[in-house]
Amino acid sequence: MSDTHTRTGQARNRPSIDATEIETMHDVFSDWERRAILYCLQERDSRVPVKTVAADLVGWWRGHERPVSTDDDVVAQVRDRLGYAHLLELHEFGVVSYDPRRETVCLADDMKVSVSEPWSDRPAEAEAGQRLSLDATDQ
Fold first, then answer.
1. The domain containing residue 78 runs over which residues?
2. Is 39 within a domain?
3. pLDDT, tens digit (0-9, with 9 covering 90-100), for 55-76
4. Is 3 among the domain residues?
5. 54 CB contacts (<8 Å, ≥6 apart)?
6. pTM score > 0.85 for this model?
Protein backbone atom coordinates (compact mmCIF):
# COMPACT_ATOMS: atom_id res chain seq x y z
CA MET A 1 0.00 0.00 0.00
CA SER A 2 1.48 3.33 -0.93
CA ASP A 3 1.81 6.28 1.39
CA THR A 4 -0.53 8.36 -0.75
CA HIS A 5 -3.42 5.91 -0.81
CA THR A 6 -5.92 4.88 1.83
CA ARG A 7 -6.63 1.38 3.04
CA THR A 8 -9.39 1.21 0.39
CA GLY A 9 -6.97 2.13 -2.39
CA GLN A 10 -8.53 5.55 -2.94
CA ALA A 11 -6.25 8.55 -3.32
CA ARG A 12 -5.98 10.72 -0.22
CA ASN A 13 -7.74 13.99 -0.77
CA ARG A 14 -6.69 15.78 2.38
CA PRO A 15 -3.19 16.83 3.34
CA SER A 16 -3.24 15.87 7.02
CA ILE A 17 -5.04 13.46 9.30
CA ASP A 18 -5.99 13.34 12.93
CA ALA A 19 -3.17 12.10 15.18
CA THR A 20 -5.02 8.87 15.97
CA GLU A 21 -6.45 8.14 12.52
CA ILE A 22 -4.62 5.53 10.45
CA GLU A 23 -5.02 5.47 6.69
CA THR A 24 -1.63 4.24 5.45
CA MET A 25 1.29 2.18 6.72
CA HIS A 26 3.19 5.46 6.97
CA ASP A 27 0.59 6.60 9.52
CA VAL A 28 1.27 3.42 11.52
CA PHE A 29 5.05 3.87 11.63
CA SER A 30 5.23 7.68 11.84
CA ASP A 31 4.01 7.73 15.46
CA TRP A 32 6.45 6.80 18.26
CA GLU A 33 3.77 5.23 20.46
CA ARG A 34 2.53 3.04 17.60
CA ARG A 35 6.08 1.93 16.79
CA ALA A 36 6.65 1.15 20.47
CA ILE A 37 3.42 -0.88 20.62
CA LEU A 38 4.51 -2.88 17.58
CA TYR A 39 7.99 -3.42 19.03
CA CYS A 40 6.44 -4.75 22.23
CA LEU A 41 4.25 -7.15 20.25
CA GLN A 42 7.00 -8.29 17.88
CA GLU A 43 9.03 -9.38 20.91
CA ARG A 44 6.22 -11.66 22.14
CA ASP A 45 4.51 -14.62 20.50
CA SER A 46 1.18 -14.37 22.27
CA ARG A 47 -1.51 -11.99 23.45
CA VAL A 48 -0.22 -9.32 25.79
CA PRO A 49 -2.19 -7.47 28.46
CA VAL A 50 -2.55 -3.79 27.55
CA LYS A 51 -1.11 -2.87 30.97
CA THR A 52 2.10 -4.72 29.98
CA VAL A 53 2.30 -2.73 26.75
CA ALA A 54 1.74 0.49 28.72
CA ALA A 55 4.47 -0.44 31.23
CA ASP A 56 6.88 -1.07 28.35
CA LEU A 57 6.04 2.27 26.72
CA VAL A 58 6.52 4.25 29.93
CA GLY A 59 9.82 2.49 30.66
CA TRP A 60 11.09 3.07 27.13
CA TRP A 61 10.03 6.71 27.17
CA ARG A 62 12.08 7.08 30.32
CA GLY A 63 15.04 5.63 28.42
CA HIS A 64 15.06 2.17 30.01
CA GLU A 65 15.13 -1.15 28.18
CA ARG A 66 12.96 -2.73 30.88
CA PRO A 67 9.34 -1.89 31.66
CA VAL A 68 8.29 -0.03 34.78
CA SER A 69 5.98 -1.57 37.36
CA THR A 70 2.42 -2.04 36.14
CA ASP A 71 1.36 -0.43 39.45
CA ASP A 72 2.86 2.90 38.34
CA ASP A 73 0.16 5.61 38.13
CA VAL A 74 1.48 6.81 34.77
CA VAL A 75 1.18 3.25 33.41
CA ALA A 76 -2.50 3.26 34.35
CA GLN A 77 -3.02 6.57 32.53
CA VAL A 78 -1.20 5.33 29.44
CA ARG A 79 -3.08 2.00 29.50
CA ASP A 80 -6.42 3.79 29.63
CA ARG A 81 -5.45 6.02 26.71
CA LEU A 82 -3.88 3.34 24.48
CA GLY A 83 -7.18 1.60 23.79
CA TYR A 84 -8.95 4.57 22.29
CA ALA A 85 -5.89 6.43 21.02
CA HIS A 86 -4.07 3.66 19.15
CA LEU A 87 -5.14 0.06 19.64
CA LEU A 88 -8.61 0.38 18.11
CA GLU A 89 -7.15 2.19 15.10
CA LEU A 90 -4.38 -0.39 14.68
CA HIS A 91 -6.99 -3.15 15.01
CA GLU A 92 -9.30 -1.58 12.41
CA PHE A 93 -6.36 -1.15 10.04
CA GLY A 94 -5.51 -4.84 10.44
CA VAL A 95 -2.12 -4.53 12.10
CA VAL A 96 -3.07 -5.88 15.53
CA SER A 97 -5.77 -7.99 17.08
CA TYR A 98 -7.17 -6.07 20.06
CA ASP A 99 -9.74 -7.40 22.53
CA PRO A 100 -11.00 -4.42 24.57
CA ARG A 101 -13.10 -6.63 26.88
CA ARG A 102 -10.09 -8.69 27.96
CA GLU A 103 -7.69 -5.76 27.53
CA THR A 104 -5.26 -7.84 25.47
CA VAL A 105 -3.51 -7.27 22.16
CA CYS A 106 -1.25 -9.16 19.73
CA LEU A 107 0.00 -8.74 16.19
CA ALA A 108 -2.65 -9.68 13.64
CA ASP A 109 -2.37 -13.13 12.04
CA ASP A 110 0.36 -13.22 9.38
CA MET A 111 1.56 -9.71 10.38
CA LYS A 112 5.33 -9.40 10.46
CA VAL A 113 7.00 -6.17 11.53
CA SER A 114 10.55 -5.07 12.17
CA VAL A 115 10.66 -2.11 14.51
CA SER A 116 13.76 -0.58 16.10
CA GLU A 117 14.24 -0.33 19.85
CA PRO A 118 11.88 2.39 21.14
CA TRP A 119 14.19 3.52 23.95
CA SER A 120 16.74 4.56 21.32
CA ASP A 121 14.14 6.30 19.14
CA ARG A 122 12.28 8.54 21.58
CA PRO A 123 10.67 11.79 20.48
CA ALA A 124 11.63 15.08 22.08
CA GLU A 125 10.88 15.00 25.81
CA ALA A 126 8.34 17.82 25.63
CA GLU A 127 6.30 16.03 22.97
CA ALA A 128 6.53 12.64 24.68
CA GLY A 129 5.80 14.13 28.08
CA GLN A 130 2.60 15.61 26.79
CA ARG A 131 1.54 12.46 24.96
CA LEU A 132 2.41 10.01 27.74
CA SER A 133 1.22 12.32 30.55
CA LEU A 134 4.72 12.43 32.00
CA ASP A 135 6.57 15.35 33.45
CA ALA A 136 10.10 15.89 34.72
CA THR A 137 9.25 14.46 38.15
CA ASP A 138 8.23 11.11 36.63
CA GLN A 139 11.59 10.37 35.03
1. 25-134
2. yes
3. 999 998 888 888 888 888 899 9
4. no
5. 70, 75, 76, 78, 79, 82
6. no
